[in-house]
Amino acid sequence: MSFVAQFVRADTVRTTSGRMPWLSRIQMHFHYLSMKILRRPLLSAHIAMILACVSVLVLTTFITSVRYLQDPDKALVPWRQYCSEQPWFVRADVEHLAPVNFLVGVITVDEKFERRQVIRSTYASLTTPRHPETGQPLGNVQVKFVLGRPRKEYAERIALEMELYNDIVVLDIKETQWSRKTFEFLRWAAENATVPVLVPHTSQSHPYMVNGTPYEVRWKLVDYVLKADDDAFIVLDELERRLRAAPRTMAHWGYKVADWFMSGEVYALSQDLVQYIAHSPDIAASASRKEDEQLARWVATHPRHADLQWLSERCWVYDHPRASTPYAHGFLFPDHVESIKEEALHGLSAKELARRGGLTKALSYSTTTKWNTPYTPPRPDLTVEEGVEALIEGGGRWAHSWYRTTRDPDTPRYVSLYDFILPSDDQRLGPKLNASGEAAGPATYDPSTGLAVYAEPVSHPAAARGPNINEAWGPNLFAHEDQLRRERYLNYTVGGTVVVHYLKHDAWFYETALALLGHRPLWHRGSAANEWRMYGSPLVQPFSSTHRHIVQDAPRTHL
Ligand SMILES: *[C@@H]1O[C@H](CO)[C@@H](O)[C@H](O)[C@H]1NC(C)=O
Ligand SMILES: *[C@@H]1O[C@H](CO)[C@@H](O)[C@H](O)[C@H]1NC(C)=O
Ligand SMILES: *[C@@H]1O[C@H](CO)[C@@H](O)[C@H](O)[C@H]1NC(C)=O
C-alpha cells in the first residue's frame, strides 16, 4: 500500500468516524472478518455456523420479547372476578351510620388551570353529601388542589385563583418536586386538613345563629385524608358512604394491587395514620422517588403495622373506558355487577366462553373496551347522550338496539328558530304589564329554585303549536333519569362506582359526570327544573375524532 493510499484511507476513516464512528468501525471489522474467512475456508464454515446459530438465537429472543410486550393477555386484569368477589356494600344500613368528614388533596401542578376548572365544575361541586330522603346535608367534604411554589409566570394567576375559589394549598417545595409532594401534603394535612363544626355558644364569642340557637364555629381535623391525582374522577357521595362503613383509625382505603401495596392514584388514610406519617422522623428522612410505593413503605414502618386495616375496592375503582389500559372497562353500575355475580355463580356456556377467548380473557371481558385498542363507538352516528350510554358496561339504555324509534321518550327534537318568537303573553317573557306599564303579576320567587312565580297561570302555547316545543323536557328528562338510576342502583342510592382513573382529557370528565352523576346535580341549580332541553347542534360532531375507528358493518336496523 502506497503512502498516498494509506493517507487517503486514514483520512476517510477519520471523517466517517467523526460522523458515525460505530457504524464505520463495525463495517471495518466486518470487512476484515470476511476477508479472513474467505482466505481460510475451513475456519469459515465453523464461524458461519456459529454466526447462523447466534443470529437465529437473537432473532428468536427478539420476536419472543416483542410478542411478550404486545401480548394483551399478560396484563389482563380479572376485574369480573374482583366484582364477583367484592362483598355487597351495606347500602341500607350505611345511612344510619355517622357521616365522615374528609379532605381530598388533588395533587396537581401550577399550569393546569383548565383541569382544575373542570374538576371544580364536575365532581368537586358536589361536596355536600345529602340524606337521600330528607335532602339534609351530612358531614363535610373538602376538595383542595395541592401545588408546590408556583413558577414565576403562573404566580399571579394562581394568587387570584386562590382568592376566588379558596381551594388551593401551596406547599413550600419546588413545583416540580414530585417525589416530596405527597409527603409534604400529608404533613400539611396533619395540621391543616380541617372542617368547620358548630359548638355550643359561650358568652365571650360572637354567636352564629342556626334556627334561633346560638353556636360558635370551630375547626376540627377531618376523619380521613385522601390523596388523589388530577386525572381521577371521584364520586364523593359514594366515597363518603364507603368511609362511613370503615373504621375511623388504623384504616387505609384504596385499590389493592398486591398484599402490601395500594395503588398510588387515590387512597384514603385515617387521621391517626396521617399523624403518624407526618411526624415520623424516619419517613421524613427517606422521601422516596417511586411515588406509587411510597405509602406502602411508610405504613410498613408503623409499630402496629399488623393491625392496619386494608380496605380495598377493586370492583368500583377502574380506568376510564377510553383509556385502553388493562384497568379500563365500561362505566359500572350495581345492576350490571349483579349480572356478573350471577355469571360467576352459574358459569358461562361453552359457546360464550369460546366467544370471549377462553377463561383468562373471559374474566377481563368488557362489552365496551379492549386493552391496547382505541375505543370505538358501536355506531358512527351516535348523539352525545347515546355516546355516553355506549360507554356503560353492558351497553347502557340502548344496548340491544342502538337505534332510536320515534316512540322513544328520548327522541331528540330540534327546535326551529321560528319557535323562539314567543307570543306576547308567553310566561317566559316575564310577568304581564298592566296599563301603566308596570308588572301586574306578583313578584314572588320560589325560594328553592329562585324562579319567579306567577299568580295567573298563562296557558302554555306549546300545545297549540305542535310538538316542537315541549314544556316538560326538563322534568321528563329528570324523571326518566331518576327512574334509570333507581334501576341501575337496584333501588338504593349508593353502592356503585367510587373512582374512575386515567382521565387524560378534560372532555372525559364531562363524559364521566354525565354517565355517573347525570344531568340533575350539574344543570344550573333550579333553573334547569323548568328548562326545556337544548340539544346539541348539528354543527358539533361530538365523537368525530373516534370516527376513524368505526366498525363499518354495524347494522342500522330501524330509524
Ligand atoms: C398550617 O397552616 C398554617 C397557616 O396557614 C401554616 O402556618 C402552617 O405552616 C401549616 N402547617 C403545615 C404543616 O404546613
Ligand atoms: C300596575 O301594577 C302595579 C304593581 O302591581 C300597581 O301598583 C299599579 O296600580 C297598576 N296600575 C294599573 C293601572 O293597574
Ligand atoms: C325496585 O322498586 C320497584 C318499585 O318499587 C320494583 O318494582 C322493583 O322490583 C325493585 N327492584 C329491585 C331490584 O328491588
Automatic annotation (TrEMBL):
Gene Ontology terms for molecular function: hexosyltransferase activity
Sections of the chain in a coiled coil: none
Predominant location category: Golgi
GO cellular component: Golgi membrane
Family named by the database record: Belongs to the glycosyltransferase 31 family.
Stated name of the protein: Uncharacterized protein
Transmembrane spans: 42-63
UniProt subcellular location: Golgi apparatus membrane
Keywords: Glycosyltransferase, Golgi apparatus, Membrane, Signal-anchor, Transferase, Transmembrane, Transmembrane helix
PANTHER family to which the protein is assigned, alphabetical: BETA-1,3-N-ACETYLGLUCOSAMINYLTRANSFERASE, GLYCOSYLTRANSFERASE FAMILY 31 PROTEIN
Keyword Glycosyltransferase: yes
GO biological process: 4,6-pyruvylated galactose residue biosynthetic process
Domain of life: Eukaryota
InterPro entries: Glyco_trans_31
One Pfam family named in its UniProt record: Galactosyl_T
Entries under Gene3D superfamilies matching the protein: 3.90.550.50
Membrane-related topology note: Single-pass type II membrane protein
